[in-house]
Amino acid sequence: RRCGSKGWSCGRNCRKALNCGQHICEEKCHDGPCPDCCYTLKQTCQCAKSVQERPCTNLDWKCEQMCNKILSCGHHHCEIVCHSGECGTCPRSGERKCPCGKT
Question: How many whole angstroms from its chain centre is CA 100?
């Protein structure tokens, strides 16, 4: 190439980490940022009810299913859509008040 030519490259693979942090850039050495990761993985949603082939960069996803686990009260079910961690306390438990103000 000529001395004044733009875009010179050594021709080797870039090998910088992609935005996912797990894969490397396979393009030839280049200027500017690397492209987004295009790999996909079989991933489990937060509630572990669904598995899908999803982009590597989107590891934290929610399916649209209701959790439906039994809450600590032992009677009611969790109504939160796909979540990780504990369901929390039963929204129907705790102190209730009568319209007249008595508990």
Answer: 47
Distance CA 14, CA 30 (A): 7
Of how many residues is the chain composed? 103
* Tens-digit pLDDT string for the chain (103 aa): 556 666 678 889 999 999 888 899 999 999 999 999 999 989 999 998 999 999 888 778 899 999 999 998 889 999 999 999 999 888 887 676 788 877 6
Give backbone dihedrals phi and psi of 41, rounded to 5 degrees, phi first.
-135, 150
Question: Contacts from 6-9 at CB under 8 Å and sequence distance 24+?
Answer: 7/31
Residue 99 is classified by DSSP as: T
Residue closest to 65 by CA, chosen among 41, 83, 39? 83
* Helix segments in the chain, DSSP class H: none
Parallel, antiparallel, or unpaired for β 51-55 and 40-44?
antiparallel
